[in-house]
Amino acid sequence: MRTRAVRRGRPLELTELGLGAAQLGNLYRETTDAETVATVEAAWEAGIRYFDTAPHYGVGLSERRLGAQLAARPRDEYVLSTKVGRLLVPSPDTADERDAHGFDVPADPVRAWDFSRDGILRSVEQSLERLGLDRIDILYLHDPDDHFAQASTEGIGALIELRDQGVVAAVGAGMNDAAPLAELIRRADVDVVMCAGRYTLLDDRAAAELLPLALDRGVGVVIAGVYNSGLLSTARPAPNATFDYLPASPEIRARAERAADIAEAHGVTLPDAALAYVRRHPAVVSVVVGARGRDQVEQNAQRARTVVPEALWADLAAAGIIPADTFSKESS
Predict the structure, then answer these.
(1) What domains are there in the chain, each with its CATH number?
(2) Smallest Cα–Cα separation from 86: which of 58, 111, 69, 108?
(3) Using CA atoms, how far apart are residues 52 and 314, in angstroms rounded to an integer?
(4) Catalytic annotation on 57?
(5) pLDDT of 158-217, one tens digit each?
(6) I need a labelling partner for 221 at 20 to 30 A (CA). Which of 53, 73, 137, 184 fits?
């Protein structure tokens, strides 16, 4: 699988397709140990060498599982990112409850927002222990929307300190909103950012400011949420498909249906086009897609290998699905 370079910080090569490990933390339902093994094995066999996790995913379960599966892999052959901002705190009083944030795990430990220097250092230490690693390649501030003042000063300062000490190779933030990511790039010496759901076939808000700014500053952009939580994940939008984790509106569904028609006319599927579209932008260094089990990983890898005709983009632009000026700003 081809790689792209994160050019700031210490040089890193990210595979164009990365594995998002939220499902290893029992996102929405239990992921069995066998599924966990199969997921990482299939990703490695497909050539994926970028893996993304977070303490938030299953309150540490994703980190523990991913670390265990990568333990026997050559450490210099893969890139791993995790996140800070949600410190995990023991909560024995809630151990008989289920997690309230979408993960099928006990509510012990629980998350506590903390973008202070001390909180970040403790979070990194705990992540290293759960992962069983002696270093992390990329650290992201995780969803600092409501804590941006502290995260964009003290928080990112702590990450830069860790980078300067050689503890990590690159630092940045991961968010669902493109505007704060652009502001962080303007304010701080970041290397890479992760933008979820704001640069897709149906939502290109990141293209207005974030992507041009990142390209100008040499900051790599990792795209997540490329299927917009489900609407773009199947060849034809499912009747109960969601968009940004809510039921898709009739207007959004109609755009997705039209995009699917155009993709089929060019011999590819809607998910093929969704993955290929975001990789066309020169600021994008990787696309992270979550998966559970061998079949989903292999399906995503096959989609990433699919050659999409250039004429597809012109037809999507003519239909108003993507911007008409996309060709002057992006490269294949």
Answers:
(1) 3-329 (3.20.20.100)
(2) 111
(3) 33
(4) yes
(5) 999 999 999 999 999 999 999 999 999 999 999 999 999 999 999 999 999 999 999 999
(6) 73
